[in-house]
Specification:
four-stranded mixed β-sheet; 13 helices; alpha+beta
Length: 291
């Protein structure tokens, strides 16, 4: 998961809980919107990673590491076998997007990445793994409104070329949900058919399969082909849209304090992973001396 190439986006270093809170609640990330009743609404979603050197590599890309590997073929085999061997009734008559969300949620290697609408949940995943406590953490902040503008332009071009009358996402929803995504692209094959027109990164809100997704304020992203790179796409788009991506880089020495403050604010394994395993993970860390 490491990379020797510069990562996309503007980097903002922080070395304490107070600095992190100052950045995450700054007008840059949480502006006051006059169009939404003067409420403070962040246009960003977040992805926490324990090591700031990691790129946005999917689990499918990590599984099929060799550049000569046919990731599309492996992906189709994984999903086909997942549907075949899953418990009866797990997703009968459900769309491929629903199946993909269930697969990602349960650990199947996919082209999907997890994000969250909560910056504190993102911070948990930047500081939560004791095995990476000596590495700087990263909190990726993705500007959804800008991403939607980029997508809308690309999709309009695709629709014009294909004489499609697909409805625009603009004004309908902040991000896709499963129904809107299915209306635009019936499945992965239809999404991948747009690849000759350039890379496309979509963000969608999965169904609330269980309390874990709800508690984590979960969102998912994917590219329009398993070979396409989130990192490369964002690097290219950041040249034209510098505010598209910010990376809050958390000093390794600050992880312990941030981790304790997240506990104090009710963000822990116990709340984000409801059930006995999450409870045990929280207790092990809370009463341990690992940090």
């Amino acid at each position: 998961m490491t990379t020797t190439q510069p990562l996309p986006g503007t980097e903002i270093p922080v070395s304490s809980w107070s600095e992190l809170m100052s950045v995450l609640h700054s007008p840059r990330l949480v502006p006051c919107s006059s169009s939404e009743g003067n409420h403070y609404r962040s246009p960003y979603v977040f992805r926490g990673m324990d090591d700031a050197t990691w790129s946005l590599q999917t689990s499918l890309q990590r599984l099929a590491k060799e550049p000569t590997t046919d990731r599309k073929k492996i992906e189709r085999s994984l999903i086909r076998s997942f549907r075949k061997y899953a418990s009866a009734g797990a997703f009968d008559d459900k769309s491929e997007w629903y199946v993909l969300a269930v697969a990602q949620h349960n650990g199947l290697p996919t082209r999907v990445l997890d994000w969250t609408a909560s910056p504190l949940v993102g911070a948990h995943f930047s500081c939560g793994d004791e095995t990476h406590k000596k590495a700087k953490g990263a909190l990726w902040c993705l500007h959804v409104d800008l991403l939607r503008e980029i997508n809308e332009q690309k999709i309009r071009e695709i629709n014009e070329q294909k004489k499609s009358a697909a409805a625009s996402l603009r004004g309908i929803a902040w991000v896709y949900d499963t129904r809107l995504l299915e209306d635009r692209f019936a499945g992965l094959d239809e999404l991948d058919a747009s690849r000759p027109d350039g890379p496309l990164m979509l963000l969608w809100e999965p169904p609330s399969l269980d309390s874990r997704i709800a508690n984590q304020h979960g969102l998912l992203s994917l590219m329009n082909h398993p070979e396409e790179s989130h990192t490369a796409f964002l690097e290219e788009q950041c040249r034209a849209y510098p505010e598209l991506l910010l990376r809050v880089v958390i000093d390794a020495e600050a992880k312990s304090e941030i981790r304790d403050m997240l506990d104090q604010n009710g963000i822990s394994e116990r709340t984000l992973f409801p059930g006995l395993p999450g409870l045990c993970d929280w207790l092990k860390r809370y009463y341990g001396n690992a940090w």
